Every structure is written in C-alpha cells, then in structure tokens.
Amino acid sequence: MSGFVFSEKPIEIASGDGVFVHDTNGTEYLDFGASYACTPVGHCHPEVVDAATSQLEDLLYVQASYPHAARTALYERLAEVAPVDVGKVWLCNSGTEANEAALKFARSATGREKIVATTQGFHGRTMGALATTWKDKYKKPFGPLIDGVEFVPYGDGEAMREAVDDETAGVILEPLQGEGGINPVPTEYLQTVRVATATSGAALILDEIQTGLGRTGSLWAADRHDVVPDILTTAKGLGSGLPIGATLCRDWIAADAGDHGSTFSGGPVVSAAAVATLDVIKREGLPAHAAEVGSYLRGEVERRLGDDVRDVRGDGLMIGIEVKRGSNRLLRDLAIEHRILALPAGRTVLRLLPPLTVEREHADRVVDALVEVMA
Questions:
Q1: Which residues make beta-bridge pairs with 234?
Q2: What does the pLDDT profile of the chain (375 residues) look like in tens digits?
Q3: Contact, 353 vs 34, CB < 8 A?
Q4: Where are any strands of DSSP class E within the chain?
Q5: Are strands 168-173 and 114-118 parallel, antiparallel or unpaired?
C-alpha cells in the first residue's frame, strides 16, 4: 500500500550517511536532491543524531507554554544568526506553516489585507500559503482560497513599485525561486522591493525555506543581497530532516502579531537537532564551502555540456540546469544507470540541492553522469 498524495519512487531508501543514501538492497546512491534541501549537513550527522538522541532520553515533548532549555537555545541561536534584528521567533513544523504565520503576522501588524506575491513563486500548500503560490496546478482543486492576493512578475521592480500601496499588508517572495525553476534575481530588484515595502509601511517577507542555512553561499540569501526583511521564514534543513520551521520577526511585527498558536511548536527533540545543525553549519563553514563547490559545479556543467543545455543558473548549491527536453528521463537515467538522485524544478529543469558537505569529486561524478545520459 502506498501513501496518499505523493507518487512513490521505485527506490526504497533504508539508510543514509553523509552525502549518500542506501536502498533496502544495499545499493548506494549519491544524493544530489537531499529530499528538497532537508539535509544540509549530510545524512545522520553524528552531532545532530547525538543531540536528538540525548534529548529523546530526557523528554520527548512539552508544549511551548512551558520553557525548555533546547527550545530557548534555538530561539537565541536563530536570533544570533538572523539577517534581521529579531523581536520574536515563531517555531512550527514545516515551511508552509512558517509562511502561513508570516502572512497572518503581516496582516495583524499592519491592519491591512492585501498581499503581493510573484509569478512562479511557491510558498506552500496550506490555504493561506497556497493562495500566494503561483501555479494553478497546486491551487485549482482547493479553491476558493483566501482573497486579497495580487501577483506581479518576478524580477520586475517597476511592477512591484506599482503594486505595493497603502493597502498592502506584505510582500512575500523567494530571493531565489526554487520550485518555479531556480530563478535568480539581481540585488537591485530585491532592494527595490525593500524600498517599496518600507515606503508604504508593508512587511517584506523573505521566504528562505529553500535558500536559507547556507544553501546559496551565505547563511541566508538576504545576506548576499544586503536586504533586511521584516519577516524571514526558514524550514527544510533546519532540523536536518526532522520536521521544524521558523518565522523570524522584527520588533514592529512581533509587537502586534496577533493570536497564533500550535500544539507542536518547537518540541525539545527537533529544537535540539536544529541547534546542532546550526552549530555544524557555522563551525564547518558550510556556506562558503557551498559557494566554492557550487561555482565549480556550474562551471563544469557549462564547460562540458555547453550547447547541450539551455541554461545553468543558481547560487551556491542551489542549481538549475535547463535542458532541451523533459527532465524526467534524465532523472530516471541518473538514478538507475549512475546511482545519482536529483530533482525536477518544472518540466525542463534539473534541480541539484545536495548536502552542503559535497566535495568536488562528487560534483565531477554528477557532471560525468550528465554527459553520458545526455549524449
């Protein structure tokens, strides 16, 4: 029997270690998808496992109205590393919940309704976050969704300036789009959005669910663009695969964030894993490592594949390779013939989101395989 919603792949994963996973037959795969960027420090990093195991032995769970050392440590650590002066941290269980909270906080803090989102953006599958997600294929079966969302072209600063007005509660966007096709934008555009929101009194929400935690070559993509958001959301790799998300808010948002709650907000076990994950990322210098290996990998794809691909784009180890035909066959051949796992980002884009611990030798293996499967 298979689960509901997700279509299962014909590879049953049994274990993971660093940049590799193994199926039930013992076959080893190089993981260049990391389950959509959920294992930034590699599979089963010993420090993360030890932190979670130690906490499991003491206390599985206590609700967030009771202070707990692991949760408090995570609040403090996120505030320390955030690209914004954090007034409050809201912990939850996923990226879509983090974005859902961000939308609520923007509306309650401003007293306004309108949300501006971007074409090709993806922010989650719950009803509020889904309303700010672009593609109809995600939304159509579940309408009607929340009202008051206006979409503008991603990367168009003039369209953003025209859309953001005194009725706008917030603007939500990814500083580098993931699901929409690995679409980067220049610093000038993000700074234009920042000025537009600040001028109108709206909240700038940066969705760093996929771009954060070192993925793009700095701890946050916001750091690379010198943009300070009012709300930043993170999830995916924060707990090294354990379910956790966070919404980081500036003081003016936190002061009037309204009433929001969740039973499983920042449990002790996932909080301990998240603190350990952040510690490893910082100590091992993984953002800089991602920038170096990612630049090397993009360069090798461009050099060796050349005209065989339409485009190679991204930052750090968030890479999109736009191919001339559909990506599904490439993904299948990479997995079956070369034991490499990767991801799609739309119909024609191959997405690479490996653990940030991959080395050049792993990048070479991926490029060698791509040369063969595209021949």
A1: 246
A2: 456 555 667 899 999 999 999 999 999 999 999 999 999 999 999 999 999 999 999 999 999 989 999 999 999 999 999 988 888 999 999 999 999 999 999 999 999 999 999 999 999 999 999 999 999 999 999 999 999 999 999 999 999 999 999 999 999 999 999 999 999 999 999 999 999 999 999 999 999 999 999 999 999 999 999 999 999 999 999 999 999 999 999 999 988 666 888 889 999 999 999 999 999 999 999 999 999 999 999 999 999 998 899 999 999 999 999 998 888 889 999 999 999 999 999 899 999 999 999 999 999 999 999 999 998
A3: yes
A4: 13-17, 20-23, 28-31, 86-92, 114-118, 149-152, 168-173, 176-177, 183-184, 203-207, 231-234, 245-250, 309-315, 318-323, 340-341, 343-344, 349-352
A5: parallel
The radius of gyration of the chain's CA atoms, rounded to the nearest angstrom, is 20
CA distance 317 to 359: 11
Helix pair 268-283, 69-81: axis angle to 10 deg: 40
Which secondary-structure segment (H or E) carries 365? helix 360-374
Task: Establish how many alpha carbons lie within 13 A of residue 171's alpha carbon, considering only the half-sphere containing its beta carbon.
Answer: 33
Q: Which residues 6+ apart lie within 8 Å of 223 measured at CB?
A: 83
DSSP state string for 313-331: EEETTEEEEEESS-SHHHH
Neighbouring C-beta atoms of residue 14, cutoff 10 Å = 12
Q: How many helices (H) and strands (E) does the chain have?
A: 14, 17
Number of other residues whose CB lies within 10 A of the CB of residue 24 = 10
> Which domains, ranges and CATH numbers included, belong to the chain?
13-44+286-374 (3.90.1150.10), 46-283 (3.40.640.10)
151 phi/psi in degrees, rounded to 5: -100, 140
Cβ proximity of 202 and 112 under 8 Å: yes
Helix (H, G, I), strand (E, B) or coil at 151: strand
